[in-house]
Amino acid sequence: MSNNGDEKITRRDFFSLVGWAGIAATMGGSAFSFYKYYFPNVLYESQKVFKIGKPSEYPPGLSERWKKERQIWVVRNERGLYAMISICRHLGCTPNWFSDKKVFLCPCHGSIYDLAGNVLGGPAPRLFWRAAVKIDPVDGQIIVDFNHRQDPDPVSTENGLMVEEASREVEPFFLKG
Ligand code: FES
């Protein structure tokens, strides 16, 4: 009973309030879980699209700067630059670059690739993928899309499984200049 007699909370009112508060908390929790499911703090997919600095940071030749972290090599030739995915096309091991021989050698079953990603020997059935690249117009950095891959059909030649280089140096898999 209240002091002036115009307000009174009964036991029933109290337990009703507690009940409604519980329902509201449950619904709030569900709504929050729903939100977190559809809008997580970590955007897993975004990790497959990433920046690797400006083109001027890559001198002619091979850069292994992103091999461990992002599974790509960056290659600059006299015409421009491309990002090659450092995954062996046989069973997915990570090949190593041997600068003295100018080849990639896969430690698992011995596949050999040249700097352009062509297969020179071993069981690999296809060339290295190249990832799509473009320049961010705001900061001038290279954006790599790891999921968007170039995978042209190789031709069997006496030198191995090759693809005409000019056909690979096209947008969005090649940055001219
Ligand atoms: S995984 Fe590279 S040769 Fe088998």
Question: How does this structure look, described?
Answer:
There is one protein chain. The protein is of the alpha+beta class and 177 residues long. It contains three helices and 13 strands; from the N terminus they run H-E-E-H-E-E-E-E-E-E-E-E-E-E-H-E. The chain binds FE2/S2 (inorganic) cluster (FES).
Task: Please describe the structure with a list of short key phrases separated by commas or semicolons.
alpha+beta, 20% helix, four-stranded antiparallel β-sheet, binds FE2/S2 (inorganic) cluster, 177 residues, elongated, 3 helices, seven-stranded antiparallel β-sheet
H and E order:
HEEHEEEEEEEEEEHE
Query: Which geometry do the CA atoms define?
Result: elongated
Tell me the major beta sheet. Answer: 7 strands, antiparallel
Category by helix and strand content: alpha+beta
The radius of gyration over CA amounts to: 28 Å
**Intertermini distance:** 85 Å
Instruction: Please mark out the parts with pLDDT under 50 across 5 or more consecutive residues, or reply none.
Output: 40-44
**Strand-residue fraction?**
25-35%
Number of H/I helices: 3
Overall residue-averaged pLDDT value: 88
Query: In terms of quaternary structure, what is this?
Result: single chain
Helix content: 10-25%
Give the names of the bound compounds. Answer: FE2/S2 (inorganic) cluster
Count of strand segments? 13
